[in-house]
Amino acid sequence: MTSSTAVDRPTGPAPSGARGTKPRRSTSTSTIDSKRQWWGWLFVAPFTVVFVLFLIIPLSYAFWMSLHNKGLATGGESVFVGADNYVRAFTDPVFLEGLLRVAKFVAVMVPVQIGLALVCALVLDTLATRLSKASRLLIFVPYAVPAVIGALMWGFLYSPRFGPATDVFGLFGLTAPDFLSSSMIFASLVNIVTWQWVGYYMIIIYAALRTIDPSVYEAARIDGANGLQTALRIKVPMVSSSMVMVVVFSLIGTLQFFTEPTVLRSVAQGAIPSDYTPNMYAYSLAFSYSQFNYASTIAFALGIFVFIGSYIFLYVTRKQSGLK
Amino acid sequence: MTTDTQTSPTATRRPSRSGTGANGGRRIGSHAFLVLMALYFVVPLWFLVVGSTKSNSGLFVGSGGALWFNDEFSLVDNIRGLFEHQGGIYWIWLRNSFIYAFAGGVGATVLAVLAGYGLAKYHFRGRTAYFTVLLGSVMVPLTALTIPTFVLLSDIGLINTMWAVILPSLLSPIGVYLIRVYSQDAIPSEMLDAGRVDGAGELRLFFQVALPLLRPAIVTVLLLATVFSWNNFFLPLAVLRDTDLLPVTVGLNQWQALSNAGAGGEQVWNLIVTGAMVSIIPLIAAFLGLQKYWQGGLSLGSVK
Q1: Matching InterPro entries, A to Z (chain B) (predicted)?
Q2: Architecture, CATH, for domain A87-321
Q3: Number of domains comprising chain B
Q4: Which ipTM was obtained for this model?
């Protein structure tokens, strides 16, 4: 990032060390500079206002709330309690269970989604037919469907009353499994999220594949590499920065898992409790039990996990992503 | 990984690569795989299309099964039902969704374009620190902000208003990041300097030089931000109480919960299916119509 910024600064302020040797560039340049600086801030200002109001302040406030308690016991006043809420959270089996559950979702969902997206992108990249173009669009379409609608729809499809499962399995003389039972719900949720996001990740990887100079493949072919070798040894490494990006998206999204299980809960109440994921737990603490301080603690603790998780991932893959 | 090729505004389309897989058998295999994939991604939507033509009872017992049309065709009845059920509240929800998506999408894009351009092309003091904070904020889970945002908005009396959904949706750090990365390469600083020498003001440079060059990135950010507000569920669920203010996603989810819990009269499965089908048409149409803009643009962020 820094390499390019240094290049295009024809009128930037001179480094302080060079001040003594600075020749004729006098007051006129520096007034232009300060005026230009001013313009920079002007362009950034509107976003900064929103950034402060809806990110910095809520985040700081969540942290502040997590250090206080308020309720009948404290006479409706906010009382500073230090790390008490965090101690409670990290000894709270419900929160820990939810955390473990989303960790399991990460372990299954991220590889499944990214793997499928990568295979689709690689296959699409070797074809240039009308059929492949059409399937590229069709695979992408679910991205345009809101997660709520996607989950509602899959709820219908899973349902033994509405869904095609009974008919389809019946064709083979089998009984359809109950997709909404506690033993199946994990897989059912993985399927919904996969369906929703693979197309988006695929398009990102595919677009990156299309930017590779084809002469590279020519060279590989002359060296005797077959299609699979080209894909694994040349294409995948060359799109690794896109891969890192989609993994981060998928990681952040999965840790915040909320929409799909919440929507599916109305048809699978037994299998999905109201505290299935940390986010659902925070929501029900806040809006069903009015425990806003503890809910903020859960949300903030989850946020720290997401931040640390993605930071570690980016650090480990800094070579691939180019974020050095 | 080089950045130049990916950010170049004139993404080049390469000639077809039929030479790569001359082997016919593998081509058939690849196509079969793609057809299978396409079926997996489209069949659920097909269920919605078919389902929207069925009556409430036809969804359970019909001549066509779950994936084909019944003998009776009730699409028109269902759409009429959407106008009649609870005084046609469905269309209010759909209108709300449009307002939220439009205001959130356009607003977030305008802010992102201004800030991204400013960060890329002006060397103001604190720029590097600003960009570092911005990059870090991309990793802050937005749902962690929902509960404190709710408390703060209720303190200033904005809860249960449209603003409670629109204002937080204006925040798109990833949009700023994308525009910043794109501007860096797509707008040559020499061009801006040449304009300055010719006496053009900074605003004029922005509107007449920068904006046209940024068009592909703007369309991409606009689509991403619009989809984000259109899809948002957690925030409206938390900050809205009035049924009249809900977006279609939260509204349909309520119908679903009522239909599952409630007795005969409240079970409106046919309206849920039809409502879901109608609500996804605009966005799918927008994506198909704007293909040539977003297909290259979605890979923008993969540049470092």
Answers
A1: MetI-like (IPR000515), MetI-like_sf (IPR035906)
A2: Orthogonal Bundle (1.10)
A3: 1
A4: 0.84
